[in-house]
Specification:
CATH architecture of the largest domain: 3-Layer(aba) Sandwich
CATH class of the largest domain: Alpha Beta
Mean pLDDT: 92
Shape: globular
Largest sheet: 12 strands, mixed
Structural class: alpha/beta
Low-confidence stretches: none
Radius of gyration: 20 Å
Helix content: 25-40%
Number of domains: 2
Number of helices: 12
Strand content: 15-25%
Strand order of the largest sheet: 3-4-2-1-5-12-11-6-7-10-8-9
């Protein structure tokens, strides 16, 4: 079987994306698993030589061809960058947002055209993206629009601990208003489908968290469980999803190792990500369910405070590439 081709978008060049990408790909075991293609011109890396290991070189291409790089090279697919742009680690710049957007858009295009088997996205700055004129709250929304996907689920995972989110990047004060029976049912159906088709899990079991403390205590602490979440779970069950809940999030996530759920659906960002990140030890992965392409990413941000210092850990990027390869291989054989 041919090695999967994995396109890696560069993220914000002023963040740690380029560094963790190079550090991950210096690892020969990763290159043995797949054919990685960094979607960025070599010039962006040449501006910070501390990112390079002594045993690796970048081979720049203008188009993705069948010709592969030598054993000591990594392929880099170039695109046009404003000649005045200079990498400035740690700085929020519109130029950096433009680079991140072009890299991501090209990686997605390659996946939609079936020229690559999966996309791994290095972290970008939402602020830099907005400064460049792209009004997306994050990469997930960017990907949904570029692939013309109406509904996706942001999933964070570490091994078999998988947490999907009913709402993502929004203020806590907005969460309740953003929840609806229809939204939760759709999220459960998308999660259920990807667990089956992409992860190869037969009849996945999904636990659903409550929104309020003690699952609302029969309406004492809020009515969302009674009016929205519980009816949504019942509808999802009728549609063929093995969903359970709603469970109080604190006790549910405290007993992850004792349970046999294949995934969890949390109601808001930090409710799901705090336990996931505590358990992942810096090796969590972000996966977008519902897309027509395979997309993973590290579970961290641009880390501007350490960008350019050469101290970023590549563990999460390595896990993101490993998962992309695994899902692509399953897609080829499934």
């Amino acid at each position: 079987m041919k090695k999967p081709i994995v396109a890696i978008s560069i993220g914000d060049p002023n963040g740690i994306g380029p560094e963790v990408t190079i550090k991950a790909l210096v690892n020969k075991s990763i290159r043995d698993l797949c054919r990685p293609v960094i979607v960025a011109p070599v010039s962006l890396f040449e501006q910070d030589p501390r990112m390079f290991g002594a045993t690796i070189k970048l081979k720049e291409m203008s188009i993705l061809s069948d010709a592969t790089a030598d054993e000591d090279e990594i392929e880099a697919l170039a695109f046009e960058v404003d000649k005045s742009f200079q990498v400035q680690p740690g700085r929020l710049l519109a130029g950096a947002g433009e680079v991140a957007a072009r890299s991501l858009a090209l990686a997605v295009q390659l996946a939609l055209e079936k020229k690559v088997d999966a996309v791994v996205t290095a972290p970008l700055s939402k602020k830099s993206l907005n400064l460049a004129g792209y009004s997306y709250p994050g990469q997930t929304e960017f990907l949904a629009e570029k692939t013309r996907t109406e509904e996706v689920v942001m999933v964070l995972l570490s091994g078999n601990f998988r947490v999907g989110l009913a709402t993502t990047h929004c203020a806590i004060a907005q969460v309740s208003a953003l929840l609806s029976r229809e939204k939760i049912v759709r999220k459960l159906q998308i999660l259920n489908k990807d667990l089956s088709s992409r992860f190869g899990i037969s009849n996945p079991k999904i636990a659903v968290t409550a929104l309020n403390p003690h699952a609302g205590e029969d309406g004492l602490f809020g009515s969302e469980e009674i009016e929205i979440i519980r009816p949504a779970i019942h509808r999802a069950i009728e549609a063929g999803v093995d969903a359970r809940g709603p469970f109080p999030a604190d006790t549910l996530f405290a007993r992850v190792d004792e349970q046999k759920f294949d995934a969890y659906l949390a109601m808001y960002h930090d409710q799901g990500l705090i336990p996931l990140k505590m358990k992942s030890f810096g090796r969590g992965v972000n996966y977008t369910a519902g897309l027509p392409i395979i997309r993973t990413s590290p579970d961290h941000g641009t880390a501007f405070d350490i960008a350019g210092k050469g101290v970023a850990e590549p563990g999460s990027m390595i896990e993101a590439i490993n998962l992309a390869v695994k899902l692509a291989a399953h897609s080829q054989t499934g």
